[in-house]
Design goal:
Length: 273
């Protein structure tokens, strides 16, 4: 298996990184630890044309190393995975592209990872007897935002905080409204923790403690190394990951019938296009 340091990594950003903007400092911080903790991170870009340009640049870089693209989702952005796969499929179809150098990794994390990381962040926030946790993230779509409420409820389970509320940057409720709700419920201290790659509070909210980043740069580098190593292993067997990525949105969104007697029955999964 090729060592992950022999790969060049491009990060694909979506709503959990504010369109990829929150990944820029991660690229710089991860580059500082790459010698010991992970592969070389070449760039970060939002899905679509900017990502395609970043991947082309990585492929053109000296050394001819494999290029691995990591969808930077924490489990709430299946669309990012599918859009990244479509971008890479288009690039591999371009004439003159050498096969076997470009791979789509598994997503950075799944929802269960995010639940665990939020639980870890909650351990350092004031809790008993009247502390509340405010889980924040950039606003996205209704399904993605609803998923964060589910994740926050799971993070509260067996935790130390009686109240775990959710707030969205430029969304409903926003952090100030989320903090007000915590206080109405009886909380005396409110600590904001991000369920995203950016800061917990983009704008300070009076009386709300900033719980800091969800993950340290060394932890990000470790996850990137694991995703890259797995992708390189599969690439060595002729699997570039795009087929799985293209199916990432299956079951995401409203359920609907296919018609002609092929609709889903009770208990069957939803399907969207």
């Amino acid at each position: 298996m090729t060592h992950p340091q022999h790969a060049v990594v491009v990060l694909a950003g979506g709503h959990e990184s504010d369109g990829g903007r929150d990944l820029a400092p991660l690229v710089a911080a991860t580059a500082a630890t790459a010698a010991t903790a992970g592969p070389t991170v070449h760039a970060a870009a939002p899905a679509g044309r900017p990502l395609a340009e970043a991947v082309r640049a990585a492929l053109a870089a000296p050394g001819g190393h494999p290029v691995c693209v990591v969808p930077m989702t924490l489990g709430r952005d299946p669309r990012l995975v599918a859009e990244t796969a479509r971008t890479l499929r288009g690039l591999t179809a371009e004439q003159g592209q050498r096969p076997g150098r470009l791979a789509l990794t598994a997503p950075f994390a799944a929802a269960e990872h995010l639940v665990g990381w939020l639980r870890a962040a909650a351990r350092t926030a004031p809790a008993a007897p009247d502390g509340a946790l405010l889980v924040t993230a950039p606003a996205a779509g209704p399904f993605e935002d609803a998923e964060l409420f589910r994740i926050a409820r799971l993070a509260r389970q067996f935790g130390r905080h009686r109240w775990v509320e959710v707030a969205f940057d430029d969304g409903d409720p926003d952090p100030a409204e989320g903090a007000a709700r915590c206080r109405l419920l009886g909380a005396r201290t409110v600590t904001a923790v991000p369920a995203a790659f950016g800061p917990a509070l983009r704008t300070p909210v009076p009386g709300v403690l900033d719980g800091g980043p969800l993950l340290r740069p060394s932890a990000v580098a470790g996850v990137l190394a694991a995703r890259t190593a797995d992708a390189l292993h599969l690439l060595g067997h002729g699997e570039d990951g795009t087929a799985a990525g293209l199916d990432a949105e299956h079951g995401h969104g409203y359920a609907h019938s296919h018609g002609h007697g092929h609709g889903h029955g009770p208990g069957e999964p939803s399907h969207t296009h």
